[in-house]
Amino acid sequence: MSEKATETAAAVGLETVALTRSFGGVRAVDEATVTFRDGRINALIGPNGSGKTTFFNCVTGMIKPNSGSVLFRGKEITGRAPHRIARGGIGRSFQLCRIFPRMTVLENLLVAVRTDGLRQLLAPSRDARAIERARGLLVRVGLDHLENAEAGAISYGQQKLLELAGVLMSDPDTIMLDEPAGGVNPSLIGRIGALVRELNAEGKTFLIVEHNMEMVMSLSDHVVVFDRGRPIAEGPPSVVREDPRVLEAYLGV
Amino acid sequence: MPNASDTEERTVEGTAGRSAGGFTPPGWVRNATLVVGAALVLLFPELVPNAYVLSAGVIVACYACTATAWSFMGGFTGYVSLGHAAFFGLGAYGTGLLIRDLSLQPFLAWLLAGLIVLVVTVPVGIAALRVRGASFVIVSISFVLILLLVFQAWEDFTGGANGLNVPRPFADLYRPDHHRIFYYLFVALLAVMLLTWWVIDRSRFGAGLKAVREDEDKAEALGVPTRDYKLAAYLISATFTALAGGLYALWFGDLDPIFQFSILLGAYMVLMALLGGARNLFGPLVGAVVVGTALEYFKLEFGDTQLHLVTTAALLGIVVLFMPDGIIPAAGALLRRLGPRQASIREVTAEELLARNERRAAAGGAGAPEGASRDAPDGASGGAGEPDSESEGGR
Ligand SMILES: Nc1ncnc2c1ncn2[C@@H]1O[C@H](COP(=O)(O)OP(=O)(O)OP(=O)(O)O)[C@@H](O)[C@H]1O
Ligand SMILES: [Mg+2]
């Protein structure tokens, strides 16, 4: 797929400016300045330990950056509580798939129903509208037959789909996926890819961290390459693939 | 849309759709148990042979209140507080001091003390809930220890080790009638708690709390304001504990910091709730009846030896090791095992899941990009990227 829009046409969605986060002496994210545009399937790639997950965690508020800022559609969101960032429209999955193992598949989705005010808080969790929406999403990811299964008892691949459905349930317009293809079998990778494409066509923006190059190359409109905590190259997948700096970073020449 | 599930997954555990929540007895068994249980509880004062047993019943009812109150925090969110006696003591002393110093009507003093504890718990909760897991346990213990020292040292105000005498609300009643009234007051308080529990359990708030128990960071990432939820649960839990403490003060009439702000009392709450099943509506109540009765029996048989301490410790160990979900789920599992086999339902253990994930990861690793070696899905390096999660709270 080629660039969906020229650099200037698509609105800026997620942005970081000189974002930095160190662990002890390691600068996991090192003055990273990156821009992701709305409406695209963006990919973030880079060798192991190049700071992709740390970047995700800083953007979503799970860890505080040491310096620099995160902006979403021009508004500064640095250091906000994760739930506020999530409610602001940024959903995410985790590299090590995270679900609520002792809840049912359906209950997992009901957690993501948004609640404001005391009356909604005390309203039954299993209300008809929420359940209907959740079932619709389960059909989409192909887990509707497991609605009442305990989430911890379904397969890892199914858990990944469940996590994705949970993120969708919180109704984000930007979806960040940390290695959606990690540890799942090839046919499932195909299904996840198709789903991403479908959702993107419906207007969802994606930012995907992924090591599976086949998936990255076939899926994304725009690729950013990280090395040692900062972007070293970016552009359409076909260009990035040939970039000597990228090959060097990956091969460690 | 692509097909629901690829073939490999279907054959491996497409049928693993075992219903969560475990064993559920038929409706009539449940209802009958409830009716009989409620009747026994209500008729208890009429069935007992003497005032001594009746007073033991009051103590057990008080334990049931504290264990249930504890579970609003420990059960829903999984945050284990060993220092809940702090709220019990504050409720008890608050009630006593308001009566002594402001000459308030006893039950007005009781409600006001509950309100005061609610307010005091806001800053305490904000501070305590900054940490998770074992650290939270330590913070909760230090809070009760601080209060113990303060209430012992500040003799002019609290009476210190000499104790605080709380005038009885019904001065002209005989002892058995006094016990009977307080038995029903504790039962009424318990009923209010159980109703509150039931409302929360099925609410969105409750769903959020249970999500905190399972994976706090994940809940946050889905938009659940976990800090506010935890604080709300903590406040509810503390206030109910304080109300139980206040009733105790009015009933017993004599307070001593050593007994009111005691870690042992907090440990009893944990033991009772966990033994009965802190995630179950009636679990803490069942646990309190079992443990409370045992404690009273030990006291009667062996007097003031340390035997009950040893037994408590042993019980706590057994429960934590072998029945982490409590008696009710354990009994349910036993019934399920004894009952008809459901061949199609197969549980996948954590080890199996792990082994399978590793197999998948190994298979996936083959397709990794140019030389970028990948081991387990999250393995050694990547996992460090996620903030430490201990939302299981010491369990
Ligand atoms: N919580 C942490 N404590 C200490 N060091 C950390 C922590 N999280 C990440 N690091 C370090 O920061 C660097 C970047 O790690 P990060 O997980 O962000 O990389 P990544 O690009 O996601 O790697 P992978 O592709 O393996 O998932 C690594 O050197 C890692 O060891
Ligand atoms: Mg990572």
From TrEMBL, chain A:
Record keywords: ATP-binding, Nucleotide-binding, Transport
Every ABC transporter domain range: 14-253
Q: Answer whether the UniProt record assigns the keyword Secreted to this protein.
A: no
- For this UniProt entry, what's an example GO CC term? plasma membrane
Give GO MF terms, alphabetically: ATP binding; ATP hydrolysis activity
Q: Which SMART domains match?
A: AAA (SM00382)
Q: Which Gene3D superfamilies match?
A: P-loop containing nucleotide triphosphate hydrolases
For the keyword Nucleotide-binding, the answer is yes
**InterPro entries in the cross-refs:** AAA+_ATPase, ABC_AA/LPS_Transport, ABC_transporter-like_ATP-bd, ABC_transporter-like_CS, BCA_ABC_TP_C, P-loop_NTPase
Q: Which PANTHER family match?
A: CONSERVED COMPONENT OF ABC TRANSPORTER FOR NATURAL AMINO ACIDS (PTHR45772:SF9), CONSERVED COMPONENT OF ABC TRANSPORTER FOR NATURAL AMINO ACIDS-RELATED (PTHR45772)
**Any idea what this protein is called?**
ABC transporter ATP-binding protein
- Provide the species name: Streptomyces triticirhizae
The major lineage groups are:
Bacteria, Bacillati, Actinomycetota, Actinomycetes, Kitasatosporales
